[in-house]
Design the sequence.
């Protein structure tokens, strides 16, 4: 709770009412869509779900720091809230999950969670953890080669990725050349079942920044304002020639890693419940109500609207055409 | 037309292509100030500056991965892996990332990079400076694998690779760098990727090869010509995609096929070529398809007699050709 005399963070950060409400809608849309995907999975209609649940504040705060269609974003498989905040619709997400022809991320080729849009400058990734951070360095290098200023790239990953060689190489190059890149660690404390103390040899991932000659920042990843403030500063620093940042957002995954995981095998339900009580969406809702941005009734109305949209998008995605068999070998070569 | 070594032709390709298109960059270990350990990139830094000619840390995954990222934002990067023996840390980037970027994004993104790597034995490079690794890249779609044998091809194919919309792995045999000279056109030109050429026309057998082995095969073919055996020597130039039409056309004419490569026998491209011939030209064959390759070892050992034994040479190729002719 801030002191009474403190300026509320949304005012201090210049976030408009419209932006806050739209952000809340994105969070709710993400959670409702995730709920639906798990349901569809259990019904045997969606083969695979990878959840962003619990990461919504981290991803929304990062999305707010991005100039959509201008800055590049290189996400990982948990970034559904992020890409929705950047402009992918509920229907886009469902078409991707249902692997339909009009899936904007991959045309039904990649399993769920591999978000991509050239229009939005969201870069397609593989499933190899950490392999995309070298691409982040390369995109940032290209800005410099082309003499482009006032632009930056953000790459996102879980803390598990920080053990990968490609992660190290990407940050090494970004640090050596002081590239306009922001590396965001969504630290949810588990790499599937392996806890963070067996993935990262230091208490904070951000500590590693010192070894790469970049800024290291740790924030509460369930506080959308703290994330936005740090991400915005990092992106601005990058855009202005101040070099790269490693931003660590501490958060928690509220569901199993994917629909193929059973998290009861490696973490206690009390731990999950304790974090559920700190659900970033509830926290954001509480803040907005407390500051008179929106009422409970308006939030419930918003949730009903979103659910109706999810229902309609589910029907549309299930009725949408599959990719044609004839297209299976398209785009192997240009 | 100027006469150049193979190495000078490679260098000329990069100079001419970079002068014509400022999207082209070069990155790798020692490529800028040093001009490359073989001097393939000599003069590029002075001419094009440090923004476009970039010394990288010893991080092969990053050399290729940064090239991929730069291509994503519209550049045409040429990544140098100092020796093909060190390409392994970059294999995930090449096969899982570069090769698949277009396909996995349904055509939304593409990855027009070139990965140059010197390869091959016979220079006392031992286990980690003389490997042939092309077999690791010829079975993944989405990438092209080019291995030139002449200076003119080296330049024309490298420029074609730079301008190609897809990732191209470009292997340069180290022994060719300074031992082979030839006329090389000035300026920008393309040799087509995916097209083999007939280096010596013949009626009695087809010898398929690439890189340094093309030269050895030509020497062997001249020896056999003196013995009354008229061999056709095909320079494949591209291993992926293979020029199936040229392979089959030659075998249909000669009825005999020998595939020669420095890469190891098991899993080498020779097996694929033999299968293509067996499937599609069986009726034309007068003899079994033969392969001559390096033994199934890691690379040439350091000791001179072991290296000599490991390496193919014109005599070994000539013997295999005689054997095939006698069948």
Sequence:
């Amino acid at each position: 709770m801030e002191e009474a005399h403190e300026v509320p963070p949304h005012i201090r950060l210049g976030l408009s009412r419209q932006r806050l409400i739209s952000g809340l809608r994105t969070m709710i849309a993400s959670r409702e869509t995730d709920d639906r995907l798990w349901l569809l999975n259990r019904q045997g209609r969606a083969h695979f779900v990878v959840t962003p649940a619990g990461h919504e504040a981290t991803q929304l705060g990062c999305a707010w720091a991005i100039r959509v269609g201008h800055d590049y974003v290189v996400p990982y498989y948990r970034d559904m809230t992020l890409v929705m905040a950047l402009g992918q619709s509920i229907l886009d997400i469902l078409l991707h999950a249902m692997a339909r022809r009009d899936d904007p991320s991959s045309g039904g080729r990649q399993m769920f969670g591999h978000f991509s849009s050239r229009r939005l400058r969201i870069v397609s990734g593989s499933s190899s953890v950490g392999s995309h951070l070298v691409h982040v360095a390369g995109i940032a290098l290209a800005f410099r080669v082309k003499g482009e200023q006032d632009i930056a790239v953000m790459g996102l990953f879980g803390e598990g990725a920080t053990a990968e060689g490609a992660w190290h190489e990407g940050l090494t190059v970004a640090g050596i050349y002081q590239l306009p890149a922001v590396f965001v660690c969504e630290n949810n404390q588990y790499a599937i079942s392996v806890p963070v103390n067996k993935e990262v040899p230091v208490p904070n991932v951000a500590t590693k920044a010192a070894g790469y000659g970049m800024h290291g920042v740790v924030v509460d990843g369930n506080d959308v304002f703290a994330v936005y403030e740090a991400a915005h500063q990092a992106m601005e620093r990058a855009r202005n020639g101040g070099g790269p940042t490693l931003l660590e957002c501490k958060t928690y995954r509220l569901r199993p890693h994917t629909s193929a995981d059973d998290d009861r095998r490696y973490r206690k339900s009390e731990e999950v419940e304790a974090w559920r009580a700190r659900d970033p969406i509830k926290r954001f809702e509480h803040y907005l109500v407390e500051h008179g941005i929106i009422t409970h009734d308006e939030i419930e109305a918003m949730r009903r609207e979103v659910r109706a949209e999810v229902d309609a998008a589910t029907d549309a995605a299930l009725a949408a055409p599959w990719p044609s068999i004839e297209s299976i070998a398209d785009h192997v070569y240009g | 037309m100027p006469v150049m070594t193979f190495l000078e032709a490679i260098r000329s390709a990069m100079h001419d292509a970079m002068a014509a298109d400022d999207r082209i960059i070069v990155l790798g270990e020692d490529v800028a100030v040093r001009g490359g350990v073989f001097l393939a990139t000599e003069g590029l830094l002075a001419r094009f500056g440090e923004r476009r000619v970039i010394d990288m840390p010893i991080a092969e995954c990053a050399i290729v991965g940064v090239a991929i990222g730069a291509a994503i934002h519209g550049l045409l990067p040429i990544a140098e892996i100092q020796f093909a023996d060190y390409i392994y840390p970059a294999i995930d980037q090449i096969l899982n990332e570069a090769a698949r970027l277009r396909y996995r994004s349904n055509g939304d993104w593409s990855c027009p990079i070139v990965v140059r790597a010197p390869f091959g034995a016979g220079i006392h490079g031992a286990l980690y400076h003389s490997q042939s690794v092309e077999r690791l890249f010829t079975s993944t779609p989405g990438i092209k694998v080019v291995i030139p044998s002449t200076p003119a091809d080296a330049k024309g194919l490298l420029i074609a690779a730079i301008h190609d919309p897809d990732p191209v792995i470009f292997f340069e045999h180290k022994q060719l760098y300074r031992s082979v000279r030839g006329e090389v056109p000035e300026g920008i030109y393309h040799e087509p990727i995916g097209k083999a050429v007939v280096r010596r026309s013949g009626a009695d057998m087809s010898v398929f090869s690439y890189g340094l082995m093309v030269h050895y095969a030509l020497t062997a073919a001249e020896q056999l010509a003196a013995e009354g055996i008229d061999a056709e020597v095909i320079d494949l130039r591209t291993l992926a995609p293979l020029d199936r039409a040229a392979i089959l056309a030659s075998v249909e004419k000669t009825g005999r096929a020998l595939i020669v490569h420095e890469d190891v026998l098991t899993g080498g491209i020779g097996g694929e070529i033999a299968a293509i011939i067996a499937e599609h030209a069986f009726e034309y064959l007068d003899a079994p398809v033969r392969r001559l390759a390096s033994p199934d070892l890691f690379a040439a050992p350091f000791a001179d007699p072991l290296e000599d034994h490991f390496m193919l040479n014109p005599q070994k190729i000539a013997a295999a050709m005689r054997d095939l002719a006698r069948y």
User: Anything to note?
Assistant: Chain A touches chain B at residues 72, 103, 105-110, 114, 116-118, 123-124, 126, 128, 131, 133-146, 165-166, 169-170, 172-173, 176, 330-334 (CB under 8 Å). Chain A has one domain: 9-255+266-319. The first strand of chain A starts at residue 72 and ends at 74. The mean pLDDT of chain A is 97.
